[in-house]
Design goal:
It contains 19 helices and 10 strands. The chain has about 525 residues and is of the alpha+beta class.
């Protein structure tokens, strides 16, 4: 029996070995399957993103005035795109040294960097360690991948693999330097170079290039405009890393470190927020799609003349302020007005408001458009629809012009007396008075036009004919629904200032109306 027992022991040992290693192999297979499932899930998720978005970078459109000078920028990313050949090689070297030393060696994922980041995150029980791959940073800054979580880092990695398949290394690098944020509202190296140093990105010296590269991880904290000492520390760290990688010599680094952080910011064209730009934006919405407007990068040439625009704004304020200072003025003045806490009022401001439109009679180009006294207090544009107001006496010249074209002479005798019942077709008992409450005798027809006499204008309108007056108002674009009644002779219908001003271009153009426009070309 003992011999038999001894013979069975090796078989039991073999079973123990299979048990001991079998569960480990099974665990490894399960772990490998789980890893494969995770990569399959995130790889599939990464396929749902449109890679075209990576190459599309919104930038501000530029608005030019009538002389071809920059008038304003349109809202959007403050970015000036440049090709890689227009960027200083020293900046490229600094960025790669700082952000991705193995950029040209990996296929989108720097596995050593990812493992290092994950290990630090696990130790700290957080997701603060950033991805070291430049391509992963591009993925995060280009696509809506979400916050900084383990899940999102895996997604970034899978998207980075796709980016590497879709774009060349040079294309990825060019997209990166144009997309990355450098603080102070600057996107892209060209904008940052202009904003901080007043020069093109191609002219950055080593110290400046290293400083900009040092901003990428914390652009607002180390802005050279706000924190030159912190910016210098980051610059020096980049220079040291470049020395380690033998991209520059120690002597070059030391020379650059000795340079003080001095900024020479170039004043960048700002976004003009005024009524004229509101009109430009409205015009663009009729010409472009929303995607085209959002993408930006457009050069928009307008008919605006800044000197005329400023003069129009000043003239409006001067005249309305003069009225407010009159002793018999019983309404709130602009000087007394206190804006609400949100800083903006509505269309019905308590103080006196007005608008100005200046049009070039020869072309119809709008040289100035002012829709109120203070755009910051009220963005309601009173120069454009739907800000329609009764045209009143401003319509009288058209009524007289029609009558003159029908044979009435400027010197013809017209009564300035009260309108008698039954005198005017369709008037019934309607009898408008003159604005000053007085009446005169028989006067030359031209007197009624010069002095804007209501009674004379109604009688001139009777001569012109109601149908003709209504047709002219429609044809000139003043209004499309002019009431069919004698009150229209003195402008008792609504229009907006832009359309009314455009209608006035018939007088210097032999009856030909110039359509008012503000966008020349795009």
């Amino acid at each position: 029996m003992k011999v038999f027992a001894r013979l069975r022991r090796p078989k039991k040992a073999r079973g123990n070995i299979l048990f001991r290693y079998g569960w480990k192999i099974t665990l490894l297979l399960l772990l490998a399957g789980a890893v494969f499932a995770v990569f399959l899930f995130y790889g599939t998720w990464a396929q749902t993103f449109d890679m075209k978005t990576v190459g599309e970078m919104p930038e501000r459109s530029t608005v030019y005035d009538v002389d071809g000078k920059i008038y304003s920028r349109l809202a959007g990313a403050n970015r000036l795109k440049v090709s890689l050949s227009e960027v200083s090689p020293q900046f490229i070297a600094a960025v790669l040294a700082r952000e991705d030393t193995r950029f040209y060696d990996h296929k989108g994922i720097d596995w050593r960097g990812v493992l290092r980041a994950l290990s630090r995150d696990i130790v700290s029980m957080s997701a603060k360690e950033g991805a070291s791959s430049l391509t992963m940073q591009l993925a995060r800054n280009s696509l809506p991948l979400g916050g900084r979580t383990f899940s999102r880092k895996l997604l970034e990695a899978m998207v980075a693999l796709r980016i590497e398949r879709e774009f060349t290394k040079q294309q990825i690098l060019e997209l990166y330097v144009n997309r990355i944020y450098f603080g102070t509202g600057c996107y892209g190296v060209e904008t940052a170079s202009q904003a901080y140093f007043g020069k093109d990105a191609s002219k950055l010296n080593l110290s400046e290039a290293a400083l900009l590269a040092g901003l990428i991880r914390s652009p607002n904290r180390f802005s050279p405009l706000k924190n030159p000492e912190g910016a210098a520390i980051q610059r020096d760290a980049v220079l040291n890393r470049m020395v380690e990688l033998r991209k520059i010599t120690s002597a070059q680094a030391e020379q650059s470190k000795k340079m003080k952080v001095v900024t020479h910011p170039k004043r960048m064209p700002q976004i003009q927020e005024n009524y004229a730009m509101d009109a430009v934006q409205r015009g663009l919405s009729l010409i472009l799609t929303q995607d085209q407007m959002d993408d930006g990068g457009l050069s928009i040439y307008t008919t605006l003349d800044p000197s005329v625009q400023n003069a129009a704004q000043d003239a409006l304020e001067t005249q309305l302020s003069k009225i407010e200072r009159q002793s018999n003025f019983r309404h709130p003045s602009k000087a007394e007005y206190k804006p609400p806490e949100n800083g903006e009022g509505d269309a019905a401001m308590p103080y006196l408001e007005g608008a100005v439109v200046v049009i070039d009679n020869a072309s119809g180009g709008i040289r100035a458009l002012v829709g109120g006294r203070d755009y910051a207090q009220s963005k309601f544009n009173r120069a454009l629809a739907p800000a329609n107001r009764q045209v009143g006496s401003a319509f009288k010249p058209f009524v007289y012009a029609i009558a003159f074209s029908h044979g009435l002479l400027p010197g013809a005798a017209i009564s300035d007396g009260p309108i008698q019942p039954g005198e005017i077709d369709g008037a019934g008992n309607w009898s408008p008075a003159n604005s000053d409450g007085t009446y005169g005798g028989t006067m030359p027809c031209s007197y009624g036009l010069v002095h804007s006499r209501n009674t004379m204008s109604v009688r001139v309108g009777q001569f012109a004919g109601l149908d003709a007056v209504q047709k002219v108002a429609n044809d000139l674009g003043i209004a499309q629904n002019v009431p069919h009644g004698p009150a229209s002779y003195i402008g008792s219908f609504e229009s907006n200032l832009k359309d009314l001003t455009s209608a006035y271009t018939v007088f210097p153009n032999d009856g030909v109306r110039r359509q008012g426009y503000i966008i020349e070309r795009i």
